[in-house]
Amino acid sequence: MVRLAYLGPEGTFAEEALRRLAPDAEGLPAANIPAALNAVRGGEADGAVVPLENSLEGAIATTLDEFAWGEPLLITAEVLLPVRFSLLARPDTTLNQIKRIYSHPAALTQCRGYISRELPDAVVVAAPSTAGAAQEVALPGSPYDAAIAAPIAGQHYGLTEIASDIGDRTDTMTRFVQVARPGTPSAPTGSDRTTLVVFLADDHPGALLEMLTEFSVRGVNLTRIESRPTGDGIGRYFFHFDFEGHIADARVGEAVSGLHRICGEVRFLGSYPRADGVSPQIKRGTADPEFAEAAEWLKRVRAGG
Amino acid sequence: MVRLAYLGPEGTFAEEALRRLAPDAEGLPAANIPAALNAVRGGEADGAVVPLENSLEGAIATTLDEFAWGEPLLITAEVLLPVRFSLLARPDTTLNQIKRIYSHPAALTQCRGYISRELPDAVVVAAPSTAGAAQEVALPGSPYDAAIAAPIAGQHYGLTEIASDIGDRTDTMTRFVQVARPGTPSAPTGSDRTTLVVFLADDHPGALLEMLTEFSVRGVNLTRIESRPTGDGIGRYFFHFDFEGHIADARVGEAVSGLHRICGEVRFLGSYPRADGVSPQIKRGTADPEFAEAAEWLKRVRAGG
Amino acid sequence: MVRLAYLGPEGTFAEEALRRLAPDAEGLPAANIPAALNAVRGGEADGAVVPLENSLEGAIATTLDEFAWGEPLLITAEVLLPVRFSLLARPDTTLNQIKRIYSHPAALTQCRGYISRELPDAVVVAAPSTAGAAQEVALPGSPYDAAIAAPIAGQHYGLTEIASDIGDRTDTMTRFVQVARPGTPSAPTGSDRTTLVVFLADDHPGALLEMLTEFSVRGVNLTRIESRPTGDGIGRYFFHFDFEGHIADARVGEAVSGLHRICGEVRFLGSYPRADGVSPQIKRGTADPEFAEAAEWLKRVRAGG
Amino acid sequence: MVRLAYLGPEGTFAEEALRRLAPDAEGLPAANIPAALNAVRGGEADGAVVPLENSLEGAIATTLDEFAWGEPLLITAEVLLPVRFSLLARPDTTLNQIKRIYSHPAALTQCRGYISRELPDAVVVAAPSTAGAAQEVALPGSPYDAAIAAPIAGQHYGLTEIASDIGDRTDTMTRFVQVARPGTPSAPTGSDRTTLVVFLADDHPGALLEMLTEFSVRGVNLTRIESRPTGDGIGRYFFHFDFEGHIADARVGEAVSGLHRICGEVRFLGSYPRADGVSPQIKRGTADPEFAEAAEWLKRVRAGG
């Protein structure tokens, strides 16, 4: 059975993402993101499921930095997980018995409307994770009456769901990716995404514009860009790029080779099916057969044909 | 006396930044970044000093989002603060008496080398902030023997500096900005930076390239770009830009107007002297007198002169 | 009565163009293009009508160079004239009596199909101009039996039109422009064209790309580009640009000012109604009200509003 | 012996260019440029030498159009020929005996200063070519006293050089190219030029900018651009490009393939040593070894290495 590490404890959104990506896998909860990824690198796990970005909070810096600096890994899949918070309590607890709520600060922030409306007098306490909060609340004698966490956490820890979908926004999503040890990317599906890390060779004005031009001239559309500090002082950054297409696509290959030539270092993080199933609009002259035909033509021209 | 809010408690790096920016100001410690900014918005403070980015950790998302979504504020100054960690203990404590170290997780991470070398057997415990750790250590009967915090925290809480500059990297910096309620930016100094938030009108392929071209065609060099989620789902972002020059500069004004025309919303966050004092290289044809001369020329041409 | 110089003698396509542009004007035939333009410069004529380009032959280099180097003139109108050749002979001549055909080489080339089909045994002789050929054929005792020229030449010189529209292509066009001494361009009509001459400041790689970017970033579409030698050696060129819009348009004014700033010299040749009446597609953010609103916005931002 | 056609008669600048390019070749004078090129196409000549552009007059449209529309040919060499005009007369003629000067109008124009200074009363008469003028003057009983032509024409027709270098500008140059039937281009020399003809697929705004970006993104510098009408009406053009580098260069091959993909038709006209011997500045990341390394890298990445 495939073993996949994830950000534990049991009951996290990461576990829920893992269940969607690989329903039959064995989940290995890890203490934090680096630990989950190291389990893959070290061979204790076959893969890992980690969050990459959240539609409210933004990029998960730890994940980005692990992908950039740590021993290389390959992204093999992605999933967009709706972030649905539930109010979880020990069985028989009723709403008006809840005096102390325990959860991760991000969850408390995102459920502020519900809390002030339904539990205006409750005390809220910060927990290290939403699943950890549920775990704590489940303990007999816990000082907390309820946790705010993913529904899956309630199932894991035997808590009752007093209210569901209590976030202020119901459309919040987290994008999780599944990673494996480096290897051949799976075949293109026609709806793929590719992720890169790019370090500049020298940080000159216009360097970012040059990078984007390498993409645009081959008709490759970016879907995400993140800058991260290199650690060498304010003003020095490297970049994460997500874009449409697969490394096996000719237009992607040429664009990525172009970045490799003009940049200091390009780290390929993977090509994998898009969770949203969207197929890219391919600009005239940038489809694979057009690249193949142009290569043939160039060969003939060079040979004097 | 000018009153400036900052991320408290007393003894934080933010307070140190404030002292550098405004040695004579009265500091008002705030519980968190939004609280510091709200003190300005509400008039309890004349300004605030908040971190914007760190050379190891990256952007401070809370600050970016507050600047983008909160009631408008104006950045009036910046400072680059070296992040120098000290090992602080109650007077008379010696290095080999330290069994339990208390600090913010980021500080503990950044001092990992020192701890494993000098205090390999010490237990490290996570604190909500470095200054809070120092405050706690200073209490008689504290369960912690030492804090890792800014030197200023030692002074504030009467702790002895057992070791200084104990970070693994000695070049880590945090960039703090001083903000005020909206008003006229101070006059250009010749070495200025401008900060913007830009929301797209519609998220089409090439939108980022178009934005960067608005800058480059007027010879305005970007110094930082950050993407942040709009909250409307994965794949929807807005942007923070830092760039060389002052909003009063002709080339900056035209570039920013160009963004305003083609984007959904542009929020001006301020033009202020650069902390590094670097003067920009001004590309041929983009200096103020060249813009003025071109405007005169155009007027004549339009009038048939 | 307005007096307009044109490339004579009477009966040229230039005269036909003049009649379309200014039916009531008095035409002053000139010996060549520079002479026609000098008549305007010197005040003997109020304007001139000269060819700028032909859809088969390309740009009229003399016109381009006169506009670039000569004393400045202003283009005030354009017309697209179909080039229709007629076979013209003295009255009573029949097709099978035609043994010697006289015309300008370009006309002979463009009527090659007709000649080889209908007059395969005729001798063709090169004339200095089509109208001159008609003039010559009209003389009693002329050694030539027929001229190929514009229909108007037949009317002028009392010749019979034996065949009309005898060109191999029936869609050949010449674009003529009307010029005047410098003055205020006429008001925008919503379907205008603007013409510029641009000399580079220094001929560096990418200079042309930079110029085109000045246009594209303001959404100004080029309709023609010509390079011409500066005279200073092979590899040194200046440029003629035609593009959509009027110098009074904000987007055109900003683009043209941008060129003025980054180039060595920009000579404005005029904004005038397009002969084809096509209205430009105006890119989002580049219409006049959007420029005006952005200028207001910038003013407020600079003032701290 | 290699036989090269050229624009005759003997004594033209074209013959002089031919002598420089191929001193030992047999020259075959042709009546005009198409005839010279057709001699190559039909096999009567091994190659031809034709003018491409002149530093005063600009492009030679006939040559450009022959290269674009005629049966394909390959440019194999270029030469920059100084245009030096001599005043040539029958032996024993003295300057003050010259009453009638015969030459091509372009030559008469370019020697206007000399004529008005030294022969203010002479009548000037237009000839079909400078060499033809010399040939005519050499005939006993010619109505002309002197020709203005290339020095080589004097040698050919036994004329005396009364004055040399009489052009108003002494730096006028004509660029001639040598062409052959299609075949493999000669090997790169490190200082090469490549010439292309490009037809657009559809004439949309920004098409030219896109073409230039294909070059610039691979660091290929243009040295000449010419637009020519397609014949399908005013506003429809195709383009001639000269640029640094050889079709065998990786950066050139990729740029040209890119044009081939996005344009309607690209016709390769040849890669050949530059007459000026200038070596291009190769932009970081665009040298052949960098392309080769990037291709290897991409292969590994795709294979999961």
Automatic annotation (TrEMBL), chains A, B, C, D:
GO terms for molecular function: prephenate dehydratase activity. GO terms for biological process: L-phenylalanine biosynthetic process. It is an enzyme of class 4 (lyase). Residues 196-273 form the ACT domain. It catalyses: prephenate + H(+) = 3-phenylpyruvate + CO2 + H2O. CDD domains: ACT_CM-PDT, PBP2_Aa-PDT_like. Pathway: Amino-acid biosynthesis; L-phenylalanine biosynthesis; phenylpyruvate from prephenate: step 1/1. Coiled coil: none annotated. PANTHER family: PREPHENATE DEHYDRATASE P PROTEIN, PREPHENATE DEHYDRATASE-RELATED. This is Prephenate dehydratase. It comes from Nonomuraea soli. The gene is pheA.
